[in-house]
Amino acid sequence: MAESDWDTVTVLRKKGPSAAQAKSKQAILAAQRRGEDVETSKKWAAGQNKQHFITKNTAKLDRETEELHHDRVSLEVGKVIQQGRQSKGFTQKDLATKINEKPQVIADYESGRAIPNNQVMGKIERAIGLKLRGKDIGKPLETGPKGK
Question: What is the DSSP letter of 130?
């Protein structure tokens, strides 16, 4: 007869406590009663997104007297965009679609709320055919040959 592994013994053990259970108050007290070494440490502001310490930069910004803000598009540029768009017969949505931007971007530029972006300004200039940057704002855009 062939040898069989009837002598193999399999021992099933109960799983230990999970991480959350091992950290519970009851598990810590039970481990202390059994005489096991228990190490506990309290983390400062654990589980919260708090950072209440003042850095040198924060203090320096607090002492600043001038108001820090981004430059916005001037109302003059906004009016030029609006007039150029209307002269071509575009709505804000049409112009936005033509330059691959959201209609809100055009609305912000026309109302003077937008922070100027040279790429967007260039796209709008080419779409309406008017200069929006430099000294001669509102003048027709010269379309010369591109130099390479």
Answer: B
Backbone angles phi, psi at 30, to 5 degrees: -65, -40
Q: How far is CA 12 from CA 9, 15, 145, in A?
A: 10, 9, 83
Residue 140, strand partner residues: 130
Q: Which fold has domain 75-140?
A: 434 Repressor (Amino-terminal Domain) (1.10.260)
Amino acid at 135: K
Domain definitions of the chain by residue range: 75-140
Q: pLDDT exceeding 70 applies to what percent of the chain?
A: 68
Q: What is the pTM of this model?
A: 0.51
